[in-house]
Write a structure and sequence with these properties.
This protein starts with a helix and ends in a 7-residue tail after the last helix. The longest helix is centred in the C-terminal third of the chain and has 38 residues. The chain has a five-stranded parallel sheet, with helices on both faces. Helix content is 57%, strand content 16%. Helix 1 runs antiparallel to helix 6. Strand 4 and strand 5 form a beta hairpin. By secondary structure, it is of the alpha/beta class.
Length: 171
C-alpha cells in the first residue's frame, strides 16, 4: 500500500504542476512596449514570462514547462513562424497564439496551418480578444490534462487488476 500512496502523492503533485503550467504564459516579442502591455493586461489572470530575445524561447519552454506561448512573427532576424514550427516539433501540445503587426490573409493562414491556436493583430486595441483566446487555450490544456489523467488511471486499474488474477486466468 505504501507504493500506491507514493503514486497518489506523485499524481497529485503532477496534477498541480500541470494546472500551474496551464496558466503559465511565455510571451516572446522584440518590442518591449508590447511585452509590458501584455503583462499588464494578462498579469492578473496568468503568470507571464516575457522574453524579448527569441533565441531563448525553446530553452525557456523546457525550463518552465509553459504550455502556452504568445508569439510575435516579425522579430528582426527571427521569424516567429519558424519559431512556431520549432515549438510544435518540440511539443505539439504547446498552444501558441500569434500576436503580430503583419496584417494579411497569408499570415493568418500560415499561422493556422502551422498549428497556432489563433492569430491576433497589433495594435492590440481590445485586449479582451487576447484574454478570450488565452482562456480558451487554458481550458483546452486542462481538458487534455484530464484526458491523460483518466487514461493513466484506467491503465493503472487494469494493471492492478491483472496483478491479482492468477496467471492461468489472466487474459
Amino acid at each position: 500500500m505504501k507504493d500506491l500512496g507514493n503514486a497518489n502523492q506523485l499524481e497529485r503533485a503532477n496534477d498541480m504542476k500541470i494546472a500551474d503550467n496551464a496558466r503559465r504564459v511565455l510571451h516572446v516579442d522584440d518590442d518591449p512596449d508590447m511585452l509590458r502591455l501584455v503583462r499588464h493586461k494578462l498579469g492578473p489572470y496568468c503568470e507571464i514570462t516575457s522574453l524579448n530575445d527569441p533565441s531563448e524561447c525553446v530553452n525557456e519552454l523546457v525550463r518552465t514547462g509553459c504550455r502556452l506561448v504568445i508569439l510575435d512573427i516579425d522579430m528582426g532576424e527571427y521569424n516567429g513562424l519558424e519559431l512556431l514550427r520549432t515549438i510544435k516539433r518540440l511539443d505539439g501540445g504547446i498552444h501558441v497564439i500569434m500576436l503580430t503587426g503583419l496584417v494579411s490573409m497569408q499570415t493568418v493562414l500560415t499561422s493556422m496551418r502551422e498549428g497556432a491556436e489563433a492569430c491576433l493583430f497589433k495594435p492590440l486595441n481590445d485586449p479582451s480578444d487576447l484574454l478570450s483566446v488565452v482562456n480558451e487555450s487554458v481550458k483546452k490544456i486542462e481538458r487534455w490534462h484530464e484526458s491523460v489523467k483518466d487514461l493513466l488511471k484506467r491503465k493503472r486499474a487494469v494493471t492492478n487488476c491483472r496483478s491479482f488474477v492468477p496467471a492461468d486466468l489472466a487474459c
